[in-house]
């Protein structure tokens, strides 16, 4: 089976051998595990190797098959199944240091960082001085990964105590600082860092690191204290001034930060970063006009696109100030981000400057490469303003530059209908309705249904009204009676009177619209459908208040009674109609016919 590549079958037979042959059971299970591994069936491989390991009946926790089982379990992502074994090893570790190292490596591969850390710590306790430091560092690393920062720090302290190498001690101290920072113990981090800084005060890197640690832990007074001596000895030092700016910004004292930024600008008047920081602070304070002025200075100095982008962003925030003029001027010279064009256009619209808005966007589209989204925005705006001819012309431009689409076609269809060019709307719909069906919104679908209805496209109209009936949208309740009515009428046209009657019945239940039920009565009467007439009449009696003053309802009841030769009942119903509608010709004729018939008898 294995030779022919039938690996799952080979695994099956090795399992059978293992169950039948107790002498070589472990070997057969191991073979099953090997071939299951080859077949990438890691769950089966893990089971086989575990059975092989258990079959040896050895007193030790770790044998020749245990490693294979653990690796297969990791590949099968059966992490929780190996955890009890690994926990047991921590409590009773093997004598072999190599075995402990293997299990430690497997532990972190399985994601059990705490167990890995504990096993490396065991190695550190058992090993000689040569490897002790390495094991402590590994134990610390995996304890840190497990977010057990207390143990991580403890192991590093032990590693520092036994090292004789100054470079190693330096690295360990830096790692210890990082661990204390992660453990949110900045004081302990600084307790290591400050003595080092005291010995090497000229080390600006360490000084900056100490300030950084103080800052990120909101120890602003400490950060100021650390930077104070620096400023006193070198008041014009850019590094010290920059540190002070960062301190004031972190403490949200923006006025003080700007004060130090201005000092930096006096020393380096052409530096970009100070002005960029200043601009950012003014933005946060809402002083967009000044921020815009600063951003423009930076852009004029560098002429870089990234700085122009900042100018545009701030100008978008300052549309009520100089930002509007800035964007309008930029728009004459180059393309703007689409959102910036939107912002200018809609700001002008919302502030009542509709002509200016139209002129801005129209000129922008003429001056620069036409953008589809902007053209569509202009077209839709024209439509919203009921300037349908302009909107139609703009949609034609969209199609000219970007090709026809269902979106443009549907919008043109709506506009043609609004312009009362119904023949063109019908022709456009006729050429595209198969493609439009999936893309039309509710309003467009309603209009398509109306066009199909008016032009007697019965099947298509029916499908549209059914889709509308299943949609939920604002104002749907008001349109439901019409939709049910037309679905019923269309079904009748297609020779399906029973479906039509069912629609009338369901429509009345859903909408309580009396016209639906009365039309249903009329259809059942015309079709001589006694069952549905009685069914609808029964429903009407349930809601009799709605029909009490409806002359058409009583006229149908009278006609039905007359048809069924229930003349006295019919007379009563006709008189009810006449009481509601005295000039009803149908009711008068009905009364006259019945009386003539009764006199003849």
TrEMBL record:
UniProt keyword annotation of RNA-binding present: no
Ranges occupied by TPR repeats: 551-584
UniProtKB keywords: TPR repeat
Top-level taxonomic group: Bacteria
Database matches in InterPro entries: TPR-like_helical_dom_sf (IPR011990), TPR_rpt (IPR019734)
One Pfam family from the record: TPR_15
Name assigned to this protein: Tetratricopeptide repeat protein
Protein source organism: Leucothrix mucor
